[in-house]
Amino acid sequence: MQDSEISPAERRRLRVRGAILDAAEKVFAEEGEAGLSIRRIADEIDYSPAAIYKYFSSKDDLVDELKESFFGRLLGAVHEIVDRREPFSVRARRCMTGYVRIAIEKPHHYVAAFSGVRPDAETSLDARAFEDTNKGRAFSVLTDMVSEGIEGGYFRSDLDPVNTAKSVWASIHGLTMMIAHLPDFPATASMPGGMNQAEFMEFHSDLIIRSIEKTSGEAA
Amino acid sequence: MQDSEISPAERRRLRVRGAILDAAEKVFAEEGEAGLSIRRIADEIDYSPAAIYKYFSSKDDLVDELKESFFGRLLGAVHEIVDRREPFSVRARRCMTGYVRIAIEKPHHYVAAFSGVRPDAETSLDARAFEDTNKGRAFSVLTDMVSEGIEGGYFRSDLDPVNTAKSVWASIHGLTMMIAHLPDFPATASMPGGMNQAEFMEFHSDLIIRSIEKTSGEAA
DNA sequence: TCAATTTGTGAACACCGTTCACTCTGACCT
DNA sequence: AGGTCAGAGTGAACGGTGTTCACAAATTGA
Hints:
homodimer, mainly alpha, Tetracycline Repressor, domain 2, 0% strand, DNA-binding, Tet_transcr_reg_TetR-rel_C_sf (chains A, B), transcription cis-regulatory region binding (chains A, B)
């Protein structure tokens, strides 16, 4: 064991690396991927632009790490909701509204996290890799939630959990993207007394749940 | 009337403008917004880069026109579906699946069309402007469809058409974005016999419709 | 025919991501 | 202690971007 397994110079390296990520995170949150430049980060931490390449092999690499860590926080938040000791019905709802709520706290992050369209698309994600992603893990949480609902008799028993989870995810994702892209999404000028964001999130979640929940007169 | 109201030099101008848009459209469809550059367009039409600025005030302007015209085509296609002489139930379904199907024929266009996040977000769309947009008109078509469903007794009568249309739009939009970003979206390696894209679109639409349709034992 | 408007251009500006030869510092080994 | 060597950090450069501007060429109108 000697002393701490990892030490003197290694720590400095991690500190600088962290500073780069912090600076990038700050700029990214405020101005999005467009406002983020290597030179800008370098200015922020008083280094030369070239220095950053000693810590990240490319800007894409750096940004990927930002996205992944964001999705990690999102995953953690959703997980926390799902694991609560509460009736399934409230957990299911909060799982959806929570996803949207947390995601849109950092709209640029969320949008960017889904913009990983590789031009070639050559077997872009082979599921093995996908499940090693925070995005993949978030999907797993959703699948588990749906499975629990089916097994618990809350959701229709003729539904396939995986496909259902995908559909639910798509619907939630859609609302999130809408709000992220159209900053005052649910608002409508031609309807002054309309819903606010929170109310609409509830409304949307209601509809989603209604689409998969067991109809009243059905056997378990 | 003399001759054609608009003529000799004006036509040449429109022709060049069109050529620029065509070249841009081609590159954009193939390589997305990333691969599109003013110099690239200029090369394609054998003009100097500066020449383009005699026809468009900025690259954003040019791209906006591309997006708007794409959404116009999408709108037209959806409209065509909605206006068909068919039972409401099939029109409603095809309206959704058609939206997704046509949108993902040009993934780059669709994604870009929703990426108009103005950094300041200062009253970005004041509804008056929104309804003058093809995006806005597409939303109107959806609202009308929902209204028709409610009035015809197909959908729950306690639903507000505007908010319901927004929710449906969000869900459809979500699936479209999923497919656009994750090229082989519905696929799952851990589930070999999974649905293909078309099947999943039907499945997703089924769930959406089920969430808003009248439950069996209910009065009109 | 002459003047005026418009179309097109080449060069430049300021930015971008990235690379490379280079210096310098700090750790390690004898 | 001195010498070596990996690594951090840098300035300059390359090729790319959107955009501007003064200027030349062409087309229009009178």
